[in-house]
């Protein structure tokens, strides 16, 4: 599986050109992309990156990839990131690694977003993977009630679990928030659910990435498949 992820990352790297401003994703597949990009930079390629997490920032610095922020530049040419699920419309569930807020900010500031994944992430409909929702700890029960109402209105329901870290304590994001993982099963209308979650005051961001990915690179036993958004 790791070899497949690296193949997808290598294919995405073919889209990177000298002088580009890049969003650098987070997670096991994106990690391969950052490593491979670091090799290109060492060989003389000139790029600048905006990392989507502290973990990616540390990795990029170790790879000697020049970094900047969206306070310094206003637009990115391309973001390359992984996903937990991708559907036929290239809508995504992201946030399994806990970086969904920064990932979405960076993706939205990019002209293009290439998603790199192994073929197991391709689904007919989103929702088999629990939907991460980044929330403010204050008023959590009220936020969960409003989330449950949004789920019902979009025809889904399921258990909401506050994410814990490996140490057993509540997982805290880079932004200082908590994550609720909603086990919803099949989400028939992901854009509608995204629209219902957006206005909830306690929801900082959710892991439904609608209309952001332009290309998906899937690596499988039969080779690489590239899908462009229609």
Automatic annotation (TrEMBL):
The keyword Transmembrane appears for this protein: no
Keyword DNA-binding in annotation: no
Pfam families according to UniProt: Rib_5-P_isom_A
Catalytic activity: aldehydo-D-ribose 5-phosphate = D-ribulose 5-phosphate
CDD domains hit by this protein: RPI_A (cd01398)
Pathway: Carbohydrate degradation; pentose phosphate pathway; D-ribose 5-phosphate from D-ribulose 5-phosphate (non-oxidative stage): step 1/1
One GO MF term: ribose-5-phosphate isomerase activity
EC numbers, comma separated: 5.3.1.6
HAMAP family, A to Z: Rib_5P_isom_A (MF_00170)
Family per similarity comment: Belongs to the ribose 5-phosphate isomerase family.
Name of protein: Ribose-5-phosphate isomerase A
Originating organism: Bradyrhizobium lablabi
Taxonomic lineage of the native organism: Bacteria, Pseudomonadati, Pseudomonadota, Alphaproteobacteria, Hyphomicrobiales
Gene that specifies this protein: rpiA
């Amino acid at each position: 599986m790791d070899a497949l992820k690296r193949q997808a990352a290598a294919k995405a790297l073919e889209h990177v050109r000298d002088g580009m401003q890049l969003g650098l994703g987070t997670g096991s597949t994106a990690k391969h992309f950052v490593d491979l990009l670091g090799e290109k930079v060492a060989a003389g390629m000139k790029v600048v990156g905006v990392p989507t997490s502290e973990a990616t920032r540390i990795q990029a610095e170790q790879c000697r990839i020049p970094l900047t922020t969206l306070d310094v530049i206003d637009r990115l040419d391309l973001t390359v990131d992984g996903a937990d699920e991708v559907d036929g419309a290239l809508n995504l569930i992201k946030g399994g690694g806990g970086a969904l807020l920064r990932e979405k900010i960076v993706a939205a500031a990019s002209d293009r977003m290439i998603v790199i994944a192994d073929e197991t992430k391709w689904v007919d409909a989103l929702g088999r993977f629990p939907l991460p929702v980044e929330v403010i700890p204050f008023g959590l029960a009220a936020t969960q009630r409003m989330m449950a109402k949004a789920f019902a209105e979009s025809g889904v329901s399921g258990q909401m679990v506050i994410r814990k870290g490996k140490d057993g304590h509540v997982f805290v994001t880079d932004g200082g928030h908590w994550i609720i993982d909603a086990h919803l099963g099949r989400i028939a209308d992901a854009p509608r659910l995204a629209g219902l979650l957006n206005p909830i005051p306690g929801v900082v961001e959710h892991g439904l990435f609608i209309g952001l990915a332009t290309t998906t690179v899937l690596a499988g036993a039969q080779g690489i498949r590239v899908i462009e958004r229609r």
